[in-house]
Input
Amino acid sequence: MSNEILATKSVIKAYQMEGSRLEVLRGVDMSIKKGEAVCIMGSSGAGKSTLLHILGTLDKPTLGKVYYQGEDLTRKSDDQLASFRNKKMGFVFQFHHLLPELTALENVSLPARIGGLSKAAALQKAADLLKTLGLQQRENHYPSELSGGERQRVAIARALVQDPEILFADEPSGNLDQDNGEVIQDLFFKLQQDLGLTLIVVTHDPEFAKRFPKVFRLKNGTFIGQ
Amino acid sequence: MHFWLYRKVLFQKKVFSDPATFFSILGISLGVSFLVVSMAGFSGFMVSLKSSIIDVTGDVSVSKRGARITDPNDVIQKIQDSSHEIKDVMSYTRKEGMVASKGKLRIVLLQGIDWNNVANMAEFKKRQVSVVDDSDDKIGTPALLGKVVAQNLELGVGDAFKMIVPKVSKAQATEVDSGVDNYYVHGILDFGKFEFNERVVIADLKKVQELSEMQGQVNGFRVRLFDSDRAPQVADKIQETLGWDYSVRDWSMTNRSLFKAIAYEKRVLFFVMLIMLVAAFFNVSTTLFLSVLRRYSQISVMRALGLKRRDIIGLFCMHGLALGVIGLFFGLITGLLFCYGFDTLQLVYPIMPEEVYKMSSFATHLTLTDIIWVIVATLLICFISTLAPAFRGSRLSPVEGLKYE
Output
């Protein structure tokens, strides 16, 4: 039996721009196995973030299919996909996107509470994760009181709090200085190995991409090789 | 419903520091306060009118069709036996007459009632505008005058006047004699209704009977009830007991069309004010639309983390309702303060032309039903006004909001 966790089939994403049609993805086929660390690489405008959003069910393809363990995700409703994302997927974005009104602990507990976990259990789980990531002293700090690297680590903890099967990261070190960027990159690989996660990272940084066993190179909306 | 998320993220503790939110709440508060004042005004007008009618005519008025009543005590007993809701029954006589004083004449309606019970029947203390003269050195019959009668004849408390009533001549049936008696002003009353104030003079039943040569006969009875709102039902019982020789009218039958017109106007004004409130709620919609735009990235993140569309709708509806509830709270308080101000102002500056409205003043009166209507209408409009921005927020693509910091 195949251990494929996520796959796309002939995915096309097109936008109508001032009367003309702009195709960002032009028939993308890919297959990702469970526990793999995969990098999607390409220059700016190649369509890599769009592909990540489609894989992460944040966006829908104009044409084509996205499968999770053989199940067609494009047939699900928005609310079904929201529940699916909450339980199976974690996201880390280039900008931390932490909610400024919540403390680090509350931000990390947010997906668990959205998923229906009690406040106490969600906060306990969030506290454990922050401790694992060395942020136990920062639990009650607001995002504005954290450094860039700390914010990104809090965002990683938030992505992990629901024990996802797939962790998506869109340029996770793109907004950090080199030292902090490397710390975050190391953390991703460590977590992927320790937790057995499927890691899908989008980057245009060739050094970061080199560290992945599997790299999809995207140019003008199509893969040009692995 | 993720109330905790709403409380943490959307509802800021410094809710008034955002100008859009502040003006939304201000708009709702003003709209609600105007609604409260208009409802309280109309209710107050109706209550004052009802009270002035009841104080002069009683909750239920009983008279005999086409004849005077010769056996008042028997009829009083029958009336009292007809219902346990009756507080008091009082005989009265009513006679057109004239007051003469200082060379002036005025046609009045002389009412004779049991003088020992007059304070109870006419809400004496509430309505007196001049200090009552209790001295014993006056000659004549004490009388209570409507304040306009007193003004027109330039009579003050203690002043003497002549009461003249027409009567059929005993010698010649086609001729009319007049009975004259000496009266003095015992007190001046504000009956609350212009047509009473300019016509009514109240004196002791026996004295009026003597002057009119009615020999123990009365024109009818005034019935006071424990609960004025039960008057139509009690009137039916009295009518049943006394039979159709008697005319039994409750207070609501007097000026029925006026009461209906006021109730109709109240409903119309309620809807007019509601339209004003709808305008105020456009501010709420605008504030929520602004909030949706400002929080685009946060909405996107929450959607990415698993928040459903209906949860987003719930969050913004909660925000709109919270603004509505705060506005409602301040609106109710401001409305009550306006009512208090209106009542106080009326004591100093009479703002109602008595000749037009037949009442010189009225106190605002806010009923629980009015308050419930205001609350329900406000929250309903508030909820409707939140729907468009809430749906807009729920339909935002999570992707766009994640692109930028």
Notes: The first strand of chain B starts at residue 60 and ends at 64.
